[in-house]
Amino acid sequence: MGSQYKGTDIDFPIRVSISPQPSKPPAPDLHRYWRSNPDEGYLERYWPDEHNHDAWITTIRRLVARHFPDFGDARIRYFAKGTFNRLYSLTIPGRDPSYLFRVSIPVEPFFKTESEVATMEYVRRHTSMPVPRVIAFSSSDENELGYEWMLMEMMPGEPVRKVWDAMPAAARVRFFAELAAHVKQLVALRFSKFGSIYFGDVADLVIPRQVFPKYPPAGPSNNPADVIVDKDIGPGGRFALGRIVSQEFFFDKRVYYPGSRGPFQSTRELIDMRVELLGKRIRDLSHIEGEAWYCENDRELAHNKDRVYGLFEQLKALVPRLVPHDNGPEDVGILWHDDLSEHNLLVDPITFKLTAVVDWECVSIIPAYETYDAVPAFLSDRDWRPTPLVHLARGIPPNDEFIAADKQRRAAEMGPARRAYHRIVGPLYDTSSPETHQRVRNKQGLAKQLEIASFQRRPWWTAAWLAENGFCEDKAAGKVDEKGVNGRA
C-alpha cells in the first residue's frame, strides 16, 4: 500500500463492513465497558479485560490481508490504548508509510466510526490541515475481532506535550500560528444544521425521515453572500449531514435514552435535547455498589438528589430565557475539533512544525459560540474543572484558588501564542452588538453546565454559576460547607 497505490483510481477509504447499516441497537451489556474512576468517582470508559495481544495480532493480520494481500508479512505490534480505542502499528518491511490499526469499543455503535471516517476525509478534501488518511474501516462488529475497526496511515511527529518544554518561546508562537492558518480554513466551512458528517451513501441511515425530505435547507441568512454553506453536502455531494455523534448524546447510559440526535435546525433544538438527556441521566442513578453502571458519583447524586433535582429544574427553566428559538449570528454551524489538546497535536521534534492533527472521533458541527473563538484546548485554560462532587464528599477542599493561580501562570506562558493565533483566525461572527455579546455570554455559560464533566459531576458549581449570574434567588446556593457536601465529612 502507500506508494504502491499512488496514481491508481482506488477510492479510499474503503468500507469493508458486511453492509453499511446500524447492525443492531446498542447491546444491553455495554456497562462492561464502563467503570467508576477511583479518583473522581465518575463512570469512565475502559477495556474490560486484558486481551491476548499475540492472538489479536494474528487476527488483525488475517483480517487486513484478506483485503490487502501486501499486509500478509507486515510487522504488527501493540502501540497504545486510548479512551475508546486500542491501537496496533503495522509496518511493511522496506516501505513507507507505517499504519495504525485501531479497534473501538462500542460506545456509539456504527455512527461513531462512520462519522469519524467521513469527517477526516471531509477535512482532508476541503482544508490543508494534516490529518491521517483512512485506508479501510468496518463500522460493524460482525468480524473476527468482534469490534469496529479502522486502518489508517500513521502520521509523523510527537505529541506537542512531549516537546513543549524544549520549544523556545518563538517556536511556540510559530507553531500556533501555523495551526491557526489551518483552523482558519476549517472554520470558514459553514453548515446549516448541527450534527455530524457522514458519507452520502449512508444518508438514509443517519438522517431521520422527517428531516431527510427537506434536505438540504437554505443557508442561514446571516452569512455573507460569498460564504458557501454545506459545501459538498447533500444530493450531488459526496457527504451528508446527519445525526450528531457527541458525548453529551451517548456517554454512559445516554446511548439507551430515546430522543432526537439531530441534525438540529436551531441552537434551541440542540440545547433542549441536551437538557432532556441530562434530566433522564440524573434520575437514572446506579448508586448501589456492585450493580451494573455503579459509580461513586451516582451514589453522591442519590444522597443529595432533592437538591440536585432542584438545581436541574432551575437550569432547565433558564433555557427559554437564554436561548431564543431563532438563531443569531453566533449560532452559525462550525465543524469543530473540540479536543485540540497537547495529545492530539503532533509536532516535528527538530523543526517544531505541525505534522498532524489526530483523534477526530466525536467531532461535530456545533454553534460557533461553543468553539470559544476556535481556540484549541491546549492554548486555552478551559480544561480546569472545579472540585467534583465526590471529592467534596471525601472532605477535599475546593480547588478554586489553584485554578485561579494556574490561569494566571498560563496567561503569561501562552500570551504571545494566543495573540498570534487570534490575529490569524479572526472573529467567527460579529459581536459588536451588546445584545449579541450578552447572548454569547449566557449561551456559553449554559453550554458549560451541560457538558458531561459539569452538572452531572459538579452540580454545586452549577449552583454557584446560577447565583453569581443572578439566575436564582438563593445567593448561598453555590456555597459548599467546608466539611463537605451538606456537612458530610
UniProtKB/TrEMBL annotation:
Alphabetized InterPro entries for the sequence: AGP_Transferase, Aminoglycoside_PTrfase, Kinase-like_dom_sf
Domain of life, source organism: Eukaryota
Domain Aminoglycoside phosphotransferase span(s) in chain numbering: 76-393
Protein name: Phosphotransferase enzyme family-domain-containing protein
Annotated source species: Achaetomium macrosporum
